[in-house]
Automatic annotation (TrEMBL):
Pfam families: PP-binding. This is Acyl carrier protein. Gene3D superfamilies: ACP-like. Residues 1-77 form the Carrier domain.
């Protein structure tokens, strides 16, 4: 789990410089995400963790926080 969080944090800090995100910060609520970045985030997760994000996974609640992304990745990699 820590390795997953670390990889997500490294990815996000490339885009959200000068911002220290906690694991439960809502990146949508804070205004960091636009539609282009949302697609980049999905593509990063798919490629980095060798999973496929299905239509039913495309719920904002799966991507709002680092913890929620980790949870989605864990669900997808244990099935």
């Amino acid at each position: 789990m820590d390795e997953i969080k670390s990889k997500i944090k490294v990815f996000l800090t490339r885009y959200f410089r000068n911002c220290e995100l906690t694991d439960d910060d809502d990146i949508f609520e804070q205004g960091f995400v636009n539609s282009l970045f949302a697609m980049q985030l999905v593509m990063f997760i798919e490629k980095e963790f060798a999973i496929t994000i299905e239509i039913q996974d495309m719920d904002l609640s799966n991507f709002r926080t680092i913890n929620q992304m980790v949870s989605l990745i864990q669900k997808k990699t244990t099935n």
